What we know:
The protein has helices spanning 9-33, 37-54, 56-65, 89-107, 119-129, 132-135, 139-162, 165-188, 215-233, 238-258, 261-274, 278-297, 307-326, 329-342, 353-356, 377-410, 413-432, 442-461, 467-472; strands at residues 73-74, 87-88, 196-198, 203-205. The protein has 473 residues and is mostly helical. The strands form 2 sheets. It has a two-stranded antiparallel sheet. It starts with 8 loop residues before the first helix and ends with a helix.
Amino acid sequence: MTLRGDARLIPLAVAVSLLAAVGGALTAALAYETSPTIPLAVAAGLAILALAIAMPIRLVYVAILLVPFKLYTIDLKALGLPPGAGLSLPEGLFVLSGVAWAIGRLAVGKWPVVPSPLGKPYALLLLAIVPGLVMAIHPFPVVKMLVMWTALFLVYQMIVADGRPETVRTILLALAVAAAVVGLKAAVAPGSEQPQLLGLGEVAEGRPGGAFEDPNILATFEALGLPAAVALALGRGLLLRAVGAVSFGLIVAGLSLSLSRGGFLAAAGALAVMLAWRPFRYTGVAALLIFLALQSASGGSLFGQIEQTSLVEGRLQSVSYAAAGGDPRFAIWRTTPEMIAAHPFFGIGANQFPDVSLRYGLFTEDLRGSYQHAHNLPLTIAAELGLVGLAALLWASFALARVLLGAARRLQGHDRGVAIAIAAAFAGLALQGMVDYTISSNTIAAVTFVLAGCAVVMWRSAPAQPESDAASA
C-alpha cells in the first residue's frame, strides 16, 4: 500500500511522538534524580546548540559583544565539576560556536580541520599541554586549558573555512564596540577605591578591573580593540566612522583608568604599527599638531589639572625605576630559567606556576603568597609547557608574522587598513607579553585565536601582487 498526500507524514508523526515520549521520560527521571532546573538547562543547551550549528559565525559575533558582561558566569557545580570549571557567558559561547561548527562539518562528511599556515603550530601547542595531565600537581587546570584551547582552535578553523573578508570586518566592528563598552563601564563604575600611586609610582592601588576584575587584562583587551577602532574611524561609511571615533575615545579612557604600564606599551606599539597605513599617518600627524597647538595656547596646562592624567604620568615615570631593577619581575625572570632547566621538555603543566614557583623562593605577601605566572609570555609558556610549547609558540609567531606581512603588502585600500589593524593588535599583545601574561584569560585567548583566523582570511583574500606592481609591469 502506498501512502499519498498528508498520509506520508504519519510515520514521521509516529516517530516524533515516540521520541517525545522517550525524551519526556528521561527528563522526568533526570529531574527526579537531580534538580528540576537541570533538565530545563539541558533542553535550553540543546536548543542553543542547534542554533549554533546553523549559524556558528554569528555566535562568535555575539560572544565578542558580550565580553563586557563576562562577570556573569555559567556555574557548572551542579554537574559535579570543581569550582574552577565555570565559564563566563562569552567564553561559553566561544566554546559552543567552535564545537557546533565541528559537529556541523562532521555531519556533512567534512573533517573540522582546514589547511592553513597556523594549523600545525597550533596543533603542536595543544599537544604540548597534554603531558601536564600526568605531571601537574593539580591536573584540573590543565584539563580546562586543553578543552578551552581546543575549542578555540576550532573557532580559528571555522573563521579560516569561512574565508570572507566581510566576516573579518564584522569581527573587528564587534571587537571595537565591545572594547568601547568595557572602557565606558570602567569609567562609569571605576570601583570602590580611589586610584593612587605608592612610592615612586611602581605600585598602583584602587585600579579598576572593569569586566575582567584585573586591570592588566582590561588593558590588554582595550589594546586589542584599539586598532579595530582606528580602522573603523578611517574606513567606509559615515556611521561606521562615527562608531570608530567614539570607540577610540572610550578605549583610550579605559586604558588610562587601568594604569597598566604593559597596557600603555601595548597601545603605543599598536598605534606605531598603524602608522604603516597612510590614512592613519595623515590623521595622526594632524591630531598631534592640534594637540601641540592647544597645549601651547594653554601654557602647558591643558591636562595638568586632570587627576587621572597625573596618575598616568606617574605610572609612566615609574618605568625608569623598574628598569633600574626595582621591579619584582626581575627576580621572577632570573629564577624561571631554573624551573625550565629542571623540566625542559614538557614543563611543569599548564597553570601550575603559582604552586611550583614557591619551591624556587618566589614568594610575595602582596599576591597571596605566590606569583600567578612569570610575567612574560615566552617564559611562562616555556616553564609550563616546556621547550616543546615554546617551539610551538615561536613557530606560530613566525607563521603569523609572515601571513600579516604578506596581507599588508598585497592588499590595497581599506582592506589593507584591516590587515594592518590585525597586525597592530598582535604587535601590542607581543609587547605586553614581554612584561605580563594576560593570555591566561580565556577571553584574551579567544580573541587571539579569532584574530589569527582573521589574519589568514585577509592573507588568502589578497591578490597575487599589488595592483600598482601589476600596472607597472
